[in-house]
């Protein structure tokens, strides 16, 4: 007679092991976020450098000088290929890009963040909260939704609370609010401590600035987590300590369709001189794009906040727009297409993004060649409705 099968029971991790595992995940996330910041900044710097070299090559009358510039461009392309490998290692997890309930997303983020809080006293909207037990009464309506992923909100709040915990000996206060009109609602989550003055720069670290302070890495990590759906992160000094604010746009009722409506226009010859709007939050990228397009006779205007492109009253006057997918640009484009706005857009991104459903929205990866940029803009401008030329 055979022996009965042995039963194996999975050991439940202890509270200490669970917290240690969460801290390990947090550290791994911070390393990946740091790598992502480095890749983003180097990518923009490389695009500005290679763009300048391409302009020099166009203007070089001396064949020897043109050959030397081409050799420099080859070195830049080699650097670009290596940077692409680093980018792949630091890529963020793709979100489902589906609508999420704002209140549930904030609650999830607070629970995950407070699981690492240790002995720090945290209040949420005036009531003690330790991530378990009774759900806090957030000052957010139940019917708010947004076009991000709840995990992105959770990542941002984990990073911001970690920054406060690292410096605060006393309590940390979290306040939630829904501000604005029904048409332009904005959810805000403000985290404040009483640890006194903040000595680091009140901005995210960047390789393209004079200083790089790791104390503000959580700020950059939080911003990177939410920027693709238009979320904003800010840091400010108050009379008693530090205040960080996470905010994102939301709407009441059922979410809008996630896909943009299909666009069908007859192509025609594009005008020789185009009117182009550049919406990018990186000054170096804007500068090289302006120089490249003005050198071939285009009329160029710029916008330093990609998320604000859908608020431009004169958007219909442009033949084509170059839009940074980050900084809320992708979500702003979705809002434009949902309203039926038909301006042709070249969506530029350092990450792989998808935007289906409209044939006069094209996606390109940065950095890109200036000659390729000219061809893309010519093709897009040709799709502009005839009655608006």
Would you kindly provide a written description of the structure presented here, covering whatever features stand out?
This protein is an alpha/beta fold. It has three domains: 75 residues; 153 residues, Heat Shock Protein 90, CATH 3.30.565.10; 114 residues, 3-Layer(aba) Sandwich (Rossmann fold). It has eight helices and 13 strands. Strand 2 and strand 3 form a beta hairpin. It is globular. About 5% of the residues have low confidence.
CATH superfamily of the largest domain: Histidine kinase-like ATPase, C-terminal domain
Mean pLDDT: 79
Strand content: 15-25%
Give the topology string: H per helix, E per strand. Answer: HHEHEEEHEEHEEEHEEHEEH
Number of strands: 13
Shape: globular
Fold blueprint:
Blueprint: H1 15-59, H2 63-89, E1 100-101, H3 102-114, E2 122-124, E3 127-128, E4 144-146, H4 150-165, E5 172-179, E6 185-193, H5 217-226, E7 232-237, E8 242-252, E9 275-279, H6 283-294, E10 299-303, E11 320-324, H7 329-338, E12 345-349, E13 361-365, H8 370-381
Parallel strand pairs: 2-5, 9-10, 9-11, 11-12, 12-13
Antiparallel strand pairs: 1-4, 2-3, 4-8, 5-6, 6-8, 7-8
Helix pairs in contact: 1-2, 1-5, 1-6, 3-4, 4-5
Concise synopsis of the structure shown:
With 389 residues, this protein is of the alpha/beta class.
Descriptive keywords:
389 residues; alpha/beta; Heat Shock Protein 90; Rossmann fold; 3 domains; five-stranded parallel beta sheet; 8 helices; 18% strand
